[in-house]
Amino acid sequence: MSTHHIDGARVPSRGGTIAVEDPSTGETIAHVARGDTADVDLAVQAARRRADGFRLTTPADRGRLLRALARALDGVRDEFARLETLDTGKPLSLAHAEIGGCVDYLDYYAGAADKLHGETIPIGPGALAFTVREPVGVTAHIVPWNAPLSMLCRSVAPALAAGNTAVVKPAEQTPLTALRFAELVLEAGYPPGTVNVVTGLGAEAGHALAAHPGIGSLTFTGSVTTGRAVLRAAAEHITPVVTELGGKSPQLVFADADLDEVAAQVVTGFTANTGQYCDAGSRLLADRRIHDELVERITARASALTLGPGIEDRALGPLVSADHHRRVSGYLEIGLSEGARLAGTRQEVPDRGHFFAPAVFTGVTPGMRIAREEIFGPILAVAAFDNEDHAVELADATDYGLGAGIHTRDIDRALRVAGRVRAGYVMINEYFAGGVAVPFGGTKFSGTGRERGLVALDSYLTLKTVVARVGPSCG
Ligand code: NAD
C-alpha cells in the first residue's frame, strides 16, 4: 500500500514510507507513502486538470455519480468497517455505523447536486441581477484519525456534489480507508483525478497541501494547534479554510432529569470511540442536589464497560497510539495534582494495545486544566452548579464552543439554556442526536466552519453575481 492515489493510479512514494499500526495490538499492519511537496503538487495538478472537465458535467450527472458511489460503498460496508477497525482500534459495530454514516453523506449530497440554485435580485427597471453558485475547482481535505472515512466523506461528498475535485491528506495514523476509498471512486465511474489521496506526515504532506497555490478551498478537521498552522499556511494564497477543531463539550443536567437515562447518555457521551470524538461530552455539570447520585450511577455504568480489540467488538477499543496514550494518561496526574478526586473504580485493561479505562474526576473547578483542555480520551470532569446562571457560566468557561448537552424535562428551561450557551451544536435530552441533514460546527476555538446539511455546500461553491443593463424596447 506504499503508494499515493493520484490521477487514478498508484503512485509510488519518493520520500520513503510510514508504518501504520493496529492500536489494539501495537503491531505494524501496513506501510504507506511518506508524501512530500512534489507528490502534493502532482495530486493538485491532476485534480486541477479534472476539475476543468468536471465543472462542465450536468448537475444531474454529478448527482447520479455520487449516488453510484453511495451504492458502491454500501455494497462493501463490511470490508471498510473491518479496515477502519484495524486501523483505528474502534469496535467493529461502531466502525460499521460510521461507514453507514458515510453512505448517508454520499446519498444526501447526491440529492443536493442539482438543487444548487442562485437567486434573482430585483434592483429596479432596466436591470437584471442574479447570482450563480460555481464550483471552486480543487478542494483540499486534511483529515484526522478519530473517524477517518467519516470525516473524509463529510467534506468530500458536498465538494463533489458542487462540481469540484479533491485532494485528500488522511492522518498518518489512519490512512487505509482513504486509499481504498479512492479506488472505489474510480470503480463507481468517476474519471481519474477526481479524488486523489496523498498520504504522509502533517508537517510535510499536510503543510504542502495547505500552502499550495492551486487550492480553491481547504477543509481542515483536527486540533486547534494544527488549525492555526494550517490557517497561516493558507493565508499566503488567501485560500478559504473551513476549520473543524476540538471541543470540551459540557453536558448540563438539571434536577428534574431522568437520572438513569441521563447516566447512560453521559457515559456514552464521554466514552464513545474511547473519548476520541470532537464533540465528546467530556464535562458533566450537574445540579448540586442530584450530583452525588448521578456520579454514582455514572461510575457504576462506566466501570462496567468492557475493553478489547476493535475486532472483538467490546464496548471500548484502545486509544489510537502509544503517544496519545501517554498524553491522555498524563491528565490523570494533572487532575490529581490540581486537587480533583477520582470517583469509583477503573477496570483492568488488556496487556497489549493502547487501552485506557474510563475515569471520572469530581470536584473539578473552572480553572483546572482538566476542565479547560481537550483530553480526547475517556476522562470526565464533573462539577456541581447551584442554579441556571451558574450552569451557563460553567458551561462557557473554556476556550471551546463545539457541542453542549442539556438534560431536563422542562422545555422552557431547555430552550432558554440552548439559547444562552456558547456552542455551535446543542443537543437536548439526547447526546449525539442529529445526523447528516443538520449543520454541525463550533464557535470560539472549535472552529469556523459548518459541515453537514445544505449549508456545508457553501464552502465548496463560489458565488458569482451578474448584473445586466436591459435596454428599452425598440418595437
Ligand atoms: P491533528 O491536528 O494532529 O491532525 C489532523 C490532520 O492534520 C492530520 O491529517 C495531520 O497529519 C494534519 N497535520 C498535522 N500537522 C499539520 C500541518 N502543520 N499542516 C497541515 N496539516 C497538518 O489532529 P488529530 O490528532 O488527527 O485529530 C484530533 C483532533 O481533531 C481533536 O482536536 C478533535 O477534536 C479534532 N476533530 C474535530 C472535528 C470537528 O468536526 N470539529 C472532528 C474530528 C476531530
TrEMBL record:
<keyword id="KW-0560">Oxidoreductase</keyword>
<dbReference type="InterPro" id="IPR016161">
    <property type="entry name" value="Ald_DH/histidinol_DH"/>
</dbReference>
<dbReference type="InterPro" id="IPR016162">
    <property type="entry name" value="Ald_DH_N"/>
</dbReference>
<dbReference type="InterPro" id="IPR015590">
    <property type="entry name" value="Aldehyde_DH_dom"/>
</dbReference>
<dbReference type="GO" id="GO:0016620">
    <property type="term" value="F:oxidoreductase activity, acting on the aldehyde or oxo group of donors, NAD or NADP as acceptor"/>
</dbReference>
<dbReference type="Pfam" id="PF00171">
    <property type="entry name" value="Aldedh"/>
</dbReference>
<feature type="domain" description="Aldehyde dehydrogenase">
    <location>
        <begin position="13"/>
        <end position="466"/>
    </location>
</feature>
<dbReference type="InterPro" id="IPR016163">
    <property type="entry name" value="Ald_DH_C"/>
</dbReference>
<comment type="similarity">
    <text>Belongs to the aldehyde dehydrogenase family.</text>
</comment>
<protein>
    <submittedName>
        <fullName>Aldehyde dehydrogenase</fullName>
    </submittedName>
</protein>
